[in-house]
Amino acid sequence: MATLDVINQTGDVVGSIDLNDEVFGIVPNQQALFDALVMQQAARRQGTASTRGRSEVRGGGRKPYRQKGTGRARQGSIRAPQYRGGGTVFGAHPRSYGYRLNKKVRRLALKSALSDKVLAEAMNVMDTLELAAPKTKYFVAVVEAIKAPYKTLFVLGENENNVNAMLSARNIPGVSMMTSKGINVYDLVNANRIVVTSAAVKEIEEALA
After folding, report:
1. How many CB atoms lie within 10 A of CB 2?
2. What is the pLDDT of residues 18-76, one digit of tens each?
């Protein structure tokens, strides 16, 4: 069972916490991580590419020349795909690229991402994260005190008083914040370090163990 130091908002160690090996101590499954990342990236695609078929291109209502007697191939419209300015064959149309992975694979990917951060010593546990007012400079002081690198993800508990922290962090480049229910593989892998509150650790363990 892995044990991590618990720090406060000034970066001082105030205790320790034992992490559940079923969530934070597994061997990361690279295939599950890859599949989950591809799924998330696919879901983020806009899917708004669109082309016009021969029935959607303006013009071409008249038959260009008679059917027989010209010696040329028969044609019904100058907006057919073989003509310049004609419709596109099998062109792109608005669609959703999203799909779903099995629940077990998604859970395994989350556990793998969390365990990978613990193995890389890129995870900190904070006792609580509460600010007196929604001020960016207050949160900047916390980030500097704990020496958080660029692209740090803060994970808070659902029932914690996190409104001021959320408002204070949104203007800081490289800092992202979410609750324990919002964690996902992409944000975990993309972050250079994750800072999780003690309450969020318990909630994650209850959801994934």
Report:
1. 14
2. 999 999 999 999 999 999 999 999 999 999 999 999 999 999 889 999 999 999 999 99
